[in-house]
Amino acid sequence: MEEGYDSMTNVDPLQAVLETADHVAANLTRETSGENGNDCLAWHLPADELRGAVQPLIESLERLEADVLLNLVADGKGARVSKQQYCRPIHQLVTPSYKNQRDIVRYLAVADTPTYSVGIFVFPPGSKIPLHDHPDMVVVSRVLYGDFRVESYDLIDAPKKERSTQDTAVAQPTHPPSIFRASFQKLKSFMSFFSEVADEVNDRSLYARPNAQPLGVDGDNLSAPNVTCLYPHEGNFHSFVAGPDGAAVLDILLPPYEDGERDCTFYETRRLETDFSEHDVFRLVPIPAPDDFHCYSVRFHKRQTETSAKLSAWLHWLQKIA
């Protein structure tokens, strides 16, 4: 493996990727500029047209050399980089370190613009990102090393039977008798936080089915150097669990999350036991962020046992564009 950013030839490992992201984001936002401004995604485009618009970014990530980007050290017994390459994982090299919390996912910010963001998630062995969504977004991900077990779901309309039940509930609301309303309201004010969450959950439940053929995923396994992609209604809900060697993945979000507009929501799945659909259908129930999930922003610490001038140069470049 090569050692990293080459300051002598001034080659930026991510330059081509960022230039392509600029181009793709411009094409998508140009389609939707208007009432909502320029920072929204063309999520309403036909699926084939949207895939075509994102394809250059997928191809750019496929060409990215992970060993150069992360200054990976070859290790025949380590994490997979490609069919012929294995490396020493880097989760112990990011700072600050969390020695007693091996399940913490680390996030390295690379770029953040109004139309897209780029970052690298570093997973210790067995760590996870629970099931979550990307509202009205496209996310292109390149596994830099290691592998994941992936769950992926497509958003669908409520099944007919569920839809009719919901319609009936809306058309015929129920209220407590007037004699009990004051007591009822007082009781509600003392409800626990979890009950309030449950009320909100029922109103915000979505319906989905497993994404049968997500790009780059073999069964439920996503491994380096594969690229995967999700769209507003295809694979938009997913979870990752890192394999025994840990993993790292570079994510490009178009557009990025935004408070109040495109919030990240976590979900749990509930299979619908029905006979009115030929596919498995799940209710996706919003939940608070799981207590066992932690993701911290960190920095990549240089290896102490090897020459690190090239890595330092790359990190300096990374800080300039972040």
Automatic annotation (TrEMBL):
Keywords: Iron, Metal-binding, Oxidoreductase
A molecular function (GO) term: metal ion binding
Keyword Oxidoreductase: yes
Entry keyword annotation includes Metal-binding: yes
Coiled-coil features, chain-numbered ranges: none
Name listed for the protein in its UniProt record: Cysteine dioxygenase
Organism in which the protein naturally occurs: Thalassiosira oceanica (Marine diatom)
